[in-house]
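Write out the 3D structure for:
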Amino acid sequence: MLSHKFCIAPMIDYTDRHCRYFFRKLTKKAFLYSEMVVADAIVYGDKDFFLKFNDSEHSVALQIAGSNPKNLSYAAKCGEDYGYDEINFNLGCPSKRVQEGNFGACLMNDLDLVESCLTSMIKSVNIPVTVKCRIGIDEDDPYVVLPIMIERLKKIGIKTIIIHARKAILNGLDPKENREIPPLDYDLVRLIKRKWPDLNLVLNGGVNSIEKAKKELNSNKYDPDGVMMGRAAYIDPFLLTNIDHIFFDEKKRDQTRFDIVKEMIPYIETEISCGVYLNHITRHMLGLFHGVKGAKLWRSYLSENAPKRKNDINVIKEALIKIEEVQKEVV
């Protein structure tokens, strides 16, 4: 089984292939996830645009959403053909737009349809199909509805479930509020692990630091098997350089922020030569110097110049020189 001990969450508008390539410069062991991709987009759209990725991204999962079993089956097979290590089914997104498409968290109200969708996906691929869900929606009692859903998922062959330990409030809260306002219930996740110890359970929600992640895996014997971190990893990506050492017992690498930028330059040059705009990559690197002297200068220089000079690799080289000068002043 693939290791889910530390995962980086699928984040719409964030974890595209350029972001994931960048994250791989920081951690070799964390399990990466794509942005949520709607199955219909894969069926009817540009498959390369939605599915292409760099081999260095492994282990990497494709997260798909939808409610049409046939289209989900086809999309899952396409994901396998493109080389993804796992297909993850989204049962957690609470946005109005997603609800209108009848997928995401609202599907937790229709477990028969969920089973049909997942069964079709499982039959179409030879790689693992996993689920990312909430503990319930709206007025649900999570201690009633979540165990029922887990039991049904387990019966159809789902072995890995990522649980965002909050309810999804479909009416009244936007996606950002749904990540913050509904209270966390880690105890319920541990209760699920106690009831089904053979399941591979990953805890998501509120994991905003390495210390927090480590604590949730070292509390008691009913701890989840892994943790998933979201926006904290995007805001301060350099923290990911500790993952391989802390969670996977790898030797700690002597790697600086400057090293990482320099390692990214050949990739950026290649992507620019293929028609990718500079700012489509550098936008994911804005937080690299988070918390150190010169961070604001780094962000502002890239934010101002990369969109204007879309094909000019010198922008990132100039930004690096500027922050190196600032760092020398500190010394």
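The longest strand covers residues 31-38.
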